[in-house]
From TrEMBL:
Naturally occurring in which organism (per UniProt): Paenibacillus terrae (strain HPL-003)
Protein name: Carbohydrate-binding protein
Matching InterPro entries: Galactose-bd-like_sf (IPR008979)
Length: 219
């Protein structure tokens, strides 16, 4: 089921795909709130909306990886991000941060500088699950760029659910880096085999992972 939801009025709307009858969003408290705007989940009056997506919204070319309402326990609302490591288990370094639509790259820490942190793991992997088949032709990465605190990856490899792989070179920048793909239908993408530069910092990180394409409807 394709939906457009806004479950907190201080967070943007999201186009999502629901695979079950229910989805639960835990209200974050204390440290868990640090990756959200301080205006979110605050105050005495809140507006929540959900509706079926229109045919035009469903068919549109868009960032298929964005979901502002993803969280660790999410198993029904896609896209969903996961990783084999998150720095110290802290909310500001969780995998979900890399698909929330926030592309502020020049610092690190609490909102709006949340990111996916790898805790200095050389074998770190990040995965986006779409929950259905989609047709994609472009990936856009935003590396965290709080230099000289941060390092960056010179090379990364994408592995796709169709068993294909693509290795690309990256630049030392916080600006968008676009990777064009041969159009392919996939259910998930993994980012891995990330080679850190020779810079002295041990802290490369990912601010945003975008995937562009369309629903694979009758394609």
């Amino acid at each position: 089921m394709y939906l457009v939801i806004q479950l907190e009025d201080a967070i943007n709307q999201a186009f999502v795909f629901l695979t079950e009858k229910e989805y639960h969003l835990p209200i974050p408290f204390d440290e868990k709130r640090t990756s959200y705007s301080p205006k979110a989940f605050n105050g005495e009056l809140h507006l929540l909306t959900a509706r079926l997506a229109t045919t035009e919204e469903t068919a549109a070319y868009k960032n298929l990886a964005k979901n502002e309402y993803d969280h660790h326990g999410n198993t029904s609302l896609f896209p969903h991000a996961s990783a084999n490591v998150e720095t110290r288990g802290e909310a500001v370094f969780a995998a979900r941060n890399a698909i929330n639509g926030n592309t502020v790259t020049y610092s690190h820490g609490g909102w709006p500088f949340e990111s996916w942190g790898i805790n200095q793991r050389d074998d770190a992997e990040f995965k986006v699950h779409f929950g259905r088949l989609v047709e994609i032709d472009k990936i856009v990465l935003y590396l965290r760029a709080d230099f000289p605190h941060d390092n960056y990856w010179t090379n990364v490899t994408f592995t796709f659910s169709d068993d294909s792989k693509q290795t690309v070179e990256l630049l030392k920048t916080g600006q968008a880096q676009s990777i064009l793909l041969e159009p392919k239908k996939v259910e998930w993408i993994t980012l891995g085999q990330m080679i850190k530069s020779d810079d002295s910092s041990p802290f490369p990180a990912l601010t945003q992972f975008e995937v562009y394409g369309c629903e694979a409807l009758d394609r």
